[in-house]
Amino acid sequence: MAEILRVEDLTKYFATKKGTLHAVDGVSFRVEESKTLGIVGESGCGKSTLGRVILHLHERTGGRIIFQGQDISNVTAAQLKELRKDMQIIFQDPYASLNPRMSIGDIIAEPLKIYKLYPSKEERQKKVRETMDVVGLAERTYSLYPHELDGGRRQRVGIARALILNPKLVVCDEPVSALDVSIQAQILNLMMELQRERNLTYLFITHNLSVVKHISDDITVMYLGQMVEKAGASEIFAHQYHPYTKALISAIPQPKYNAPDQQIILKGEITSPINVTRSCRFAPRCVYAKPECFEQEPQLEEVSKDHFVKCHFVREINGL
Amino acid sequence: MNKHSMLSEIWRRFRKNRQAVAGLIVLVLFVVVAVFAEQLAPFGYDDQDASRAMIAPCLEFPFGTDNLGRDVLSRLLYGSRYSLSIGFLAVGISVLTGGFLGVIAAYYPKLDNIIMRCMDLFMAIPQMLLAMCIVTALGSSLFNLMLAVGLSSTPKFARVVRASVLATREQEFVEAARAIGAGNWRIILHHILPNSISALIVQATLAMAGAIISASALSFLGFGIQAPMPEWGAMLSAGRKYIRTQAYLTVIPGLAIMVVVYALNVVGDGLRDCLDPRLKK
Amino acid sequence: MAESILEVRNLEIRYVTDEETVCAVNDISFSLEKGESIGLVGETGAGKTTTALGIMGLVPDPPGEIVGGSVLFEGQNLLRMPEKNLREIRGGKISMIFQDPMTSLNPVMTVGEQIAEVVLLHSKMSKGEARKKAMEMLEQVGIPGGRCDDYPHQFSGGMKQRVMIAIALACSPELLIADEPTTALDVTIQAQVLELMRNLKQEYGTSLILITHDLGVVAKICDKVAVVYAGEIIEYGTLKDIYTDKRHPYTIGLFDSLPDIENESAELKVIQGMVPDPSCLPEGCKFHPRCPYAEEGCKHGRMEPVSVSETHMVRCGRFRGGEV
User: What is the pLDDT of residues C91-137, one digit of tens each?
Assistant: First the structure.
């Protein structure tokens, strides 16, 4: 399988008044072509920042980004513009990510104008209409404005704008979180269908575990800027080894009558990612925490084939 | 959708706002009056005649005559030329300069401090003093007067625009534009400005009133428009002396300024609303 | 049968503006017994929140307008009650938790003051006693009482929602209306808050109306479920009725469109089309344009509710003849 994206030890720190905020701290992974890597975590775990750093919407602090075999960690403005044809993003909030003063047709056509593709107006309109058809937007929405559409259709506009340049990699930042369940299913199906047709690679960022399970091939769980567990999608739902992943998966309320109640309720809240120390970042909330966890940072180790966990006592806890 | 149908769409929305349409009609009337002042005015603006000084409004002189016996109506009609052009052009100058500086300051954080501190410096100087300095430096003429009035209110516009752009630039669609490869100027012109425009329009309509008044104050002080040119503000100041006995000399130009300013404000409000597609329906 | 604390009968609420009439709530009836909890489930624009506002007497008027129906709370019709009496009930006997804990707390008052404010409004306590009560309430929801003098920005999202719960429960209300109380929270924090709500509900014997779009949250905490679609309850029953014996095509579609973490499936089942615009609702059954079983008969007239069992009601023509 051809690798399309690899990040190595990627870090992104923000300087704040209170100190250095470790938004992304030493993340490494690789994604293969036309696969989906799901990145799961709660708010503040750095998953959105990670996606934006890869797209150069934020500049990284350290580490390397390799895209299609090329190191794109440092690029000039001109190279970046070329690069963006191949890497696109779908945003979470279809209300905020569309310019309210532009019509749907103009919004979808904008990438074409920027890259001066299809210089004639007729051709451009034709291409826009084709793309609208692909994402299931009716012809008549062409001249409407974003506020006239509902959430699901707005998200289709966002998808059309991202796909009109035929990108290879699409970062999906919570693309269905703002949508109603029945619409969410429509959009997820559309995205999977487009992936099959166009060999897209997705970096699917979300806090919704059931959605990520559905769409991903591999899943990475993040906590406070770091990867704590990484494995195949079905593997991670079958065996969770990291105490945080266990709690996270058990916390999903099941839409079932008399669902067995085996919830692990975590104590406390996510600690601050500012001025972190070298320790396990989950230790303050972990039921298994021992003094060692507060003193030394665990490394990501392969517990079983392709299943990585960042925990000192992973074998002890899981009886491996 | 082509440009033509977009304009007609905006017009269709504007028409629904009755007040704004009334305001627009008033403004158009004033502009027509300004253009055809020579044909409309019964007398010249400087036809003095001591024998008919200080005649209260009557059939022959609907708005009366002033201390030099000049017909107030004729002066008012001619005066609309100066007042309106000062209002529009001065504000145009502040919109352009203030808008440009505000956008640059908000969009490029590195320049923000330099630009805004300079603006603060300008704001610390009383506007009138600043305008007087500008006129003195450039020499007194109608255009320099507009320039002075316009430049002296630049800081206000820069502040309003900067605040509005700062809020807009944090919105996700700006990031979305960057993600599809849009350059800075494209982002500013296509995404940020159209979404920050309403604050600018409101400020501009309000400032136009201020500009007419400041220009008249400057004229009164001897900068800019010189007697006997009939500028509304100058007429207002000239009539001030007779406010106890011949109140119409101040009331009439005052009313004219008020009507224009009010019309401008409602048109501005209507414009802001009809330019925003979100308020459509 | 236990005493019924709240009876909503044929509630109908509209928003009337110059341009259009939005029929937000069209025919909502349900009842709630003491200590019971009901989940109002539905998608955006289904009229869940408007129903809650209707019960509280907080529908903004204009443009809102309660067209018909009644809301009997402890036997009194809240819709006919003078505003003064209503105010005593609001925050006292009925209280409400909103979706967004970030904006529903006043940023310039300490949380202690905000809890004490409700207490002072509804009881004859002294300021000192109210403050003590506030600290007590904070402890109840798992926040150290000492944080009473902290301001909202010093709390995280989950903690703020706990403060909201403390405010809501400070006067030991008979009925608590929670509008998407955990939607803005992370899953692990949501689990904490739900656990807290469940425990407090048992302890205080409070009845609960839970408004949510999350079928998982409903399963955790509710005894009864009402599925709301286009301002109508289209299926109503006990938790067991709805989760194990769902009848209405919309309810079935809603469950099917959720990705299931226990089963693998290539494609999600989808309800075609979208939620109808409440300013121009379809005739007949409101769901018929999206329904795979729609027949000619569904397109006209009023769809009346049909009883499937004593506790289970469904508003669908397929069950009209009584054959189930």
Answer: 888 888 887 777 888 888 899 999 998 888 888 888 888 898 899 88
**Facing A210 at nearest CB: one of C259, C269, C275:** C259
Residue B232 lies in domain: 28-46+61-279
Model confidence pLDDT, tens digit, residues B55-99: 888 888 888 888 888 888 898 898 888 888 888 899 999 999 999
Q: Which domains does chain C have, with CATH numbers?
A: 4-93+171-319 (3.40.50.300)
CB-based burial, A231-262: b 16+ in 10 Å, e otherwise? bebebbbeebbbbbbbbbbbbbbbbeeebeee
Q: Is residue B15 part of a domain?
A: no
The answer to ipTM > 0.90 is no
Q: How far apart are CA A246 and CA A266, in angstroms?
A: 10
C254 touches chain A (CB under 8 A): yes
Q: How far is CA C242 from CA A229, C261, C322, in A?
A: 36, 20, 18
In this structure, the number of other CB atoms found within 10 A of the CB of residue B255 comes to 14
C219, C270, C275: residue with CB nearest A185? C270
Q: Chain B closest CA to A90's CA: distance in Å? A: 8
CA pair distance C148, C163, nearest whole angstrom: 10
Cβ proximity of A283 and A289 under 8 Å: yes
Task: Count the alpha carbons within 13 Å of A302 in the hemisphere toward its beta carbon.
Answer: 4
Cross-chain residue pair C189–A255, CB shorter than 8 Å: no
Q: How far apart are CA A275 and CA A281, in angstroms?
A: 11
Question: C122, C87 in Cβ contact below 8 A?
Answer: no
C239 lies within 8 A of chain A by CB: yes
**Which domains, from first to last, does chain A contain?**
3-86+167-244 (3.40.50.300)
Q: For residue B51, tell me if it sits in a domain.
A: no
Using CB atoms, pick whichever of B180, B191, B194 lies closest to residue A84: B180
Note the maximum CA span of chain C: 67
Neighbours of chain A (3+ CB pairs under 8 A): B, C
- C164, C104 in Cβ contact below 8 A? yes
The residue count for chain B = 281
Whole-model pTM: value is 0.83
**Residue A273 in contact with residue A224, Cβ under 8 Å?**
yes
E-only strand ranges, C101-195:
175-179
Q: Which residues pair with A6 in a beta bridge?
A: A30, A66
